[in-house]
Design goal:
Strand order of the largest sheet: 1-2
Order of helices and strands: HHHHHHEEHHHHH
Structural class: mainly alpha
């Protein structure tokens, strides 16, 4: 067989191998066909609606104002962190996060400035999904939610419900203001991610698999507070 034919055959075999690796079934993702459809829906929504709005927000709102908005919502998020610290009986961390809320709400002018971080009070990450995992609820299958993106069912999906009710804005009497703050929070969060798309495109052979694996690994790391799983847990 000519060398050129051998080269073509080797290249074709390599492509088949890469394709098989990219589409191999994952026991964590039994809903993959549905999830891929929802992933594509979210990609289309982001491309046509979310990203253009986030770019408009970035280009029209001054940097210092956006920084204040980011700090304001981060301060409200620390309330959720504090609640979940308490539910996980992490009393030292609960005091840390309660201190952050008090300092930023008072000295930080309602949270517009992150004075706590300037004073060396660490910002942490806890949510109801992590709390459910802390108390032993399995993650369950991977699930892509519309607009909200990666999750698991039942653990992280149920956690989103808990986070919603712990979110202070959810209890505002003026529904219009609450919705407006929700939209502003979304725009700020999406604008903070502008520019990261190229990293994903360069790093991922299959964007869906890349996002899924990154999400699941990060969630388990958060639940374990960065500790490695034991051999029994891995099995």
């Amino acid at each position: 067989m000519p060398s050129s034919s051998l080269l073509c055959l080797a290249s074709f075999a390599a492509l088949l191998l890469l394709s098989a690796c990219a589409t191999a079934p994952d026991r964590r993702d039994p809903l993959e066909p549905f999830n891929r459809e929802m992933f594509q829906f979210n990609q289309d929504f982001d491309e046509k609606i979310a990203r253009p709005l986030a770019e408009l927000y970035r280009d029209t709102v001054p940097l210092q104002v956006r920084k204040g908005v980011r700090n304001f919502f981060a301060n409200l998020g620390d309330v959720i962190v504090f609640v979940n610290d308490a539910l996980q009986m992490k009393w030292h961390e609960a005091l840390n996060d309660a201190g952050r809320v008090m300092v930023n709400t008072t000295l930080g002018l309602g949270g517009l400035r992150d004075v706590a971080s300037e004073l060396g009070v660490e910002k942490r990450n806890e949510d109801f999904g992590q709390t459910l995992g802390y108390w032993g609820l399995p993650a369950g299958p991977y699930l892509v939610l519309p607009i909200l993106g990666p999750s698991t069912f039942p653990r992280d999906t149920a956690g989103l419900v808990g986070d919603f009710y712990a979110w202070p804005v959810s209890h505002m009497e003026d529904a219009a203001v609450a919705r407006g703050l929700g939209v502003l929070r979304f725009l700020q969060a999406r604008s903070d991610l502008l520019g990261t798309e190229s990293v994903l495109e360069q790093a991922a052979l299959d964007r869906y698999v890349f996002v899924r694996d990154a999400y699941l690994q990060r969630r388990e790391s958060l639940i374990r507070d960065g500790r490695s799983p034991t051999l029994e847990e891995e099995e």
